[in-house]
Amino acid sequence: MPHVLFTQRILTFTGLAALLVPVFVVLGFWQWDRFEQRLAATQLQEENIAAEEVAFDELTEVDGDLAPDDRWHSTTLTGEFDPDHEVLVRNRTSDDGPGFFVVTPLLTGDGTAALVNRGWVPRAEAADARPEVPPPPTGNVTVTGRAETSETTESTGIQDRDGLPEGQVMLIDVPTLAEEMPYPVLGGHIEMLSLEPAVDETPLPVTVDGYNWGLNLAYAVQWWLFAALVVGALVVLVRREVREAREGTNDAPGRDGREASGADGGADAPSVELDGERAS
Known about the structure:
There is one protein chain. A hairpin with a 2-residue loop joins strand 9 and strand 10 (277-279). Helix content is 34%, strand content 24%. Helix 1 packs antiparallel against helix 5. Strands 2-4-5-8-6 form a five-stranded mixed β-barrel. Strands 9-10 form a two-stranded antiparallel ribbon. It has helices at 8-50, 56-59, 153-156, 174-178, 213-250, and strands spanning 54-55, 74-81, 87-94, 97-107, 113-122, 141-148, 168-169, 185-196, 272-274, 277-279. With 280 residues, it is an alpha/beta fold. It has two domains: 2-42 and 214-248; 52-211, no CATH class. Residues 255-263 and 274-280 have low confidence and may be disordered.
């Protein structure tokens, strides 16, 4: 009964399934790709944080940037802080609310410097007022922390803008900040976790943002389940149409077109006359 497959209802649902199933499958693979990327980033993050400390100037160079595979690597660097070229990075949040990152150059013995994110401080009550920032220690210090890449709008989603108060920026854009400094600056920057010798008061250390790869995995499975449900619904609809067509055929009159009551020549069969005699 091929004609059953060409009813208006079957054709409409088949067209809808042909449109939705490929879309759901593609969306599932897109989420799967994001899941793999975030899982790989999580694994790299965990491995590099647990890795043995490496001198920051061994991970990067002047006018370069930190390699993506070295991001979050435990690192250390010795030098003297230069508070005269310190900047505050706006619109950074912590569990305590909105505030600033405090980025201070650390000048090493060979004349190069590295930017150090000393941590987070809360904003002042007035939006454009300078917050209270613990000063960096004087003299030679050793910074220990995590290596980080230079920030861009693409990597952070934060839009850079002009017209900010003096000494404030939107991004830790190392090449741009290095243009305002009187010495060569290493690519990337350090997120400080500890300082030797220790000081009593420092900004709050920056925490690492993890990657929620489980959500992307769930989304991928969800899209593929939607595709399977559409295909399953189409199969159920076709089977129902076929069953109803068969039941309709079984309920129709006999193929010879005769009613059951007169098919065997019984009492209700019509009579005819032959040569003037009645026959029944």
